């Protein structure tokens, strides 16, 4: 975008530079050709009168000449260049360029801020959210961090016996999935994932019917108690599932209630929390997806 | 309470051994029961339905019955605790706001102007 801006700036510069000299040249050309006779006569009379009055030939005496000549040409100038050097073209160009530059700088500033956030979790010595894990999807296939790569993934932790927050958040997730799908024109670049924190009760069958109520596109993941605990640790999720519960005993699981947005390389980008609406979350996600595309990085679309 | 999918041992298991969680409609039913019960508690000036269990049962017997039959045990406890927690949270926020306002008033009296 920077390269397209430069010619525009030069164009404006050239336009304004060329307007002024042409006007000056016009004035200069006018005076000698059309008013040569007139000015010559007035100069002579003015010269004689001042000489007679003051007995001095000061250059100031000649000031009347160009004045009258200018008055004559000013009328013509006015008619010819009613708008002066500031023609509507120049004004329009100025406004468009100014506006474009303001918009450009704002967009670029926001993009860089996002890039900074996205790159916070890249490189060595960064606090790491996410990482290797081994779980199973609802068909019983092994699902690891490799399966998240290539798309923007959206990871949520929960459990089906969650009283009020998870259902709310999953409804939000469903809305976000649809919004992103719409915004990417149906491209399959967004992978919503639900990881259960409660693998004892949330078996694949339970999880499938539970997630189906919210959105058919959510990938449900489960595993052994140890696998899930490890997954939660990787994502810095508080994990408090009791391990040895008698069958039939009712319990709740405390867990973090953030959505984790992970980029196609499997690095943490941002988290979406309770304060986000489906709209604001979609906006954040789409900005990252579009940044990724603009930088020409690979995305799986199937 | 056996008619609820998750409250009895015979019906609450999926074929693979997991325990089925309440679905959307039973969640809705539970929340409605909760809201009715809490409205009744508000009307009777009861905050903590665990601490003041007897009084709550005496004054809102019908509501608590419906609430407890529509929600799992752990949920009932969770919602009751959450009510107290949210009340205390709101109270704290209000107190801090009041203290802030008083402090501003005090500083203004000493000739300080907010920028």
Number of helices of chain A: 7
Average pLDDT of chain B, to the nearest integer? 83
Number of helices of chain B: 4
SSE arrangement of chain A, N to C:
HHHEEEHEHEHEEH
Number of strands of chain B: 0
Poorly predicted runs of 5 or more residues of chain A: 1-59
Principal-axis shape of chain B equals elongated
Strand content of chain A: 5-15%
Count of discrete domains of chain A = 2
Order of helices and strands of chain B: HHHH
How far is the N terminus from the C terminus of chain A?
Answer: 30 Å
* Percentage of residues assigned to helices of chain B: 55-70%
**Sheet with the most strands, sense and barrel status of chain B:** none
CATH topology type of the largest domain in chain A = Glutaredoxin
Please state the average pLDDT score of chain A: 76
Biggest protein-protein contact in the assembly = A-B, 23 and 24 residues
CATH class of the largest domain in chain A: Alpha Beta
Mind telling me the C-alpha Rg of chain A?
A: 37 Å
Protein name (chain A): Mitochondrial metallochaperone Sco1
Pfam families (chain A): SCO1-SenC
GO molecular function, one term (chain A): copper ion binding
InterPro entries (chain A): SCO1/SenC, Synth_of_cyt-c-oxidase_Sco1/2, Thioredoxin-like_sf
């Amino acid at each position: 975008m920077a390269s397209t801006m430069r010619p525009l700036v030069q164009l404006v510069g050239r336009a304004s530079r060329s307007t002024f000299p042409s006007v000056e040249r016009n004035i200069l050309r006018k005076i000698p050709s059309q008013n040569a006779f007139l000015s010559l006569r007035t100069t002579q009379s003015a010269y004689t009168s001042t000489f007679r009055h003051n007995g001095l030939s000061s250059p100031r005496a000649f000031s009347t000449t160009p004045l009258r000549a200018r008055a004559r040409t000013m009328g013509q100038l006015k008619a010819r260049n009613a708008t002066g050097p500031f023609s509507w073209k120049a004004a329009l160009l100025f406004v468009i360029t100014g506006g474009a530059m303001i918009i450009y700088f704002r967009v670029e500033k926001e993009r860089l801020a996002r890039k900074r956030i996205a790159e916070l979790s890249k490189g060595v010595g960064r606090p790491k959210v996410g990482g290797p894990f081994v779980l199973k999807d609802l068909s019983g296939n092994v699902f690891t961090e490799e399966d998240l790569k290539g798309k923007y993934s959206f990871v949520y932790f929960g459990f089906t016996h969650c009283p009020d927050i998870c259902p709310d958040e999953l409804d939000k997730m469903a809305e976000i999935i649809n919004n992103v799908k719409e915004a990417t024109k149906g491209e399959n670049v967004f992978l919503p994932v639900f990881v259960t924190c409660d693998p004892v009760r949330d078996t694949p069958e339970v999880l499938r019917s539970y997630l189906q109520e919210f959105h058919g596109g959510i990938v449900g993941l489960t595993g052994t108690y140890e696998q899930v605990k490890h997954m939660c640790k990787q994502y810095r999720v508080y994990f408090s599932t009791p391990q040895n519960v008698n069958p039939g005993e009712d319990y709740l699981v405390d867990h973090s209630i953030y959505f984790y947005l992970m980029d196609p390389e499997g690095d943490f980008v941002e988290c979406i929390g309770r304060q986000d609406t489906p709209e604001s979350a979609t906006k954040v996600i789409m900005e990252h997806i579009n940044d990724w595309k603009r930088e020409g990085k690979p995305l799986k679309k199937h | 309470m056996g008619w609820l999918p998750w409250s009895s041992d015979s019906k609450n298991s999926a074929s693979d051994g997991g325990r089925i969680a309440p679905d959307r409609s039973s969640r809705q039913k539970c929340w409605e029961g909760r809201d009715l019960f809490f409205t009744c508690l508000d009307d009777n000036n009861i905050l903590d339905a665990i601490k003041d269990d007897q009084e709550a049962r005496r004054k809102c017997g019908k509501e608590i019955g419906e609430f407890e039959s529509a929600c799992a045990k752990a949920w009932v406890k969770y919602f009751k605790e959450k009510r107290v927690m949210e009340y205390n949270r709101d109270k704290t926020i209000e107190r801090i706001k009041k203290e802030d306002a008083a402090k501003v008033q005090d500083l203004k009296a000493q000739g300080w102007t907010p920028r």
